UniProtKB/TrEMBL annotation:
Ranges where the Gylcosyl hydrolase 115 C-terminal domain occurs: 88-217
Pfam families: GH115_C
High-level lineage: Bacteria, Pseudomonadati, Planctomycetota, Phycisphaerae, Phycisphaerales
Keyword vocabulary terms for this entry: Signal
Signal peptide limits: 1-25
Name of this protein: Gylcosyl hydrolase 115 C-terminal domain-containing protein
Native organism: Algisphaera agarilytica
InterPro entries listed in its UniProt record: GH115_C
């Protein structure tokens, strides 16, 4: 289904969210509130998308399939938390054999392509480890960057997935020169003080499918299911 309608400062076009005006954290309600060192957010709940001229995030659910090509795989709504997810399209590089074009289908530097923003209220300052749930079908649709308040710290760059192809998978690993499949506990953000802070994700590789993310102030070895934050809150 393709559609176009406006809601507040946001415009929804062909299944993607496009922002018509800059929205600051002071002008919008937080999409989530951290409590007890944990906060979980559905990926499709972002409030703003920027730098979306070349690549953009598109919503996918049972009634919405983006009319954007190429897209090398079918929808993967089954198993997605909340019955929806977002995907970066067009997807022109899915394997090592496809041509790599920096600044188009690959962005090694964060904050350059397809950025989505989430204002989140934090009750507690400190370090939060970033976990994200994605669906990858190839070797070149499994990387994103995460930033904080318009900045892109080294600890948020090159978030990577290798295992769990053709299924939704939680991971929190940073790709390094020595370990291309990523090192655990290296992806994190440091919240300087309580209040509303904007978490952002930007494209590293096109075609990545993004379902949900969790910020947690303790290290964990693994996450399972669509709502692991419920178990973490009980620990």
């Amino acid at each position: 289904m393709n559609f176009s309608f406006k809601f507040g400062a946001l415009a929804f076009v062909s299944g993607a969210f496009f922002c018509q005006a800059t929205v600051s954290a002071d002008e919008v309600e937080p999409v989530a509130v951290e409590k007890g060192g944990i906060v979980a957010v559905e990926a499709e709940d972002f409030v703003e998308q920027t730098k979306d001229e070349i690549r953009a995030w598109y919503r996918v659910d049972e009634s919405t399939t983006p009319d954007v090509t190429p897209d090398g795989d079918p929808p993967h709504v089954e198993g997605a938390s909340g019955g929806a997810y977002i995907e970066i399209l067009p997807d022109t590089r899915r394997t090592h054999g496809d041509k790599l074009i920096r600044g188009e289908n690959f962005s090694p530097e964060p904050g350059h392509l397809a950025i989505i923003h989430y204002p989140i209220e934090f009750e507690t300052a400190g370090r939060y480890y970033v976990w994200a749930r994605i669906y990858s079908t190839g070797s070149e649709d499994n990387g994103i960057h995460v930033g904080l308040n318009g900045e892109w710290p080294a600890a948020g760059q090159r978030m990577q997935w290798c295992q769990g192809k053709h299924g939704w998978r939680w991971e929190s690993r940073q790709r390094t020169k020595e370990q291309h499949c990523g090192v655990k506990h290296k992806i994190f953000i440091d919240i300087p003080e309580p209040g509303v802070h904007t978490i952002s994700f930007s494209m590293r590789e096109d075609g990545i499918e993004f379902d949900k993310f969790i910020l947690v102030n303790e290290q964990h070895e693994a996450m399972e299911g669509t709502s692991p934050e419920e178990n973490l809150a009980q620990e």
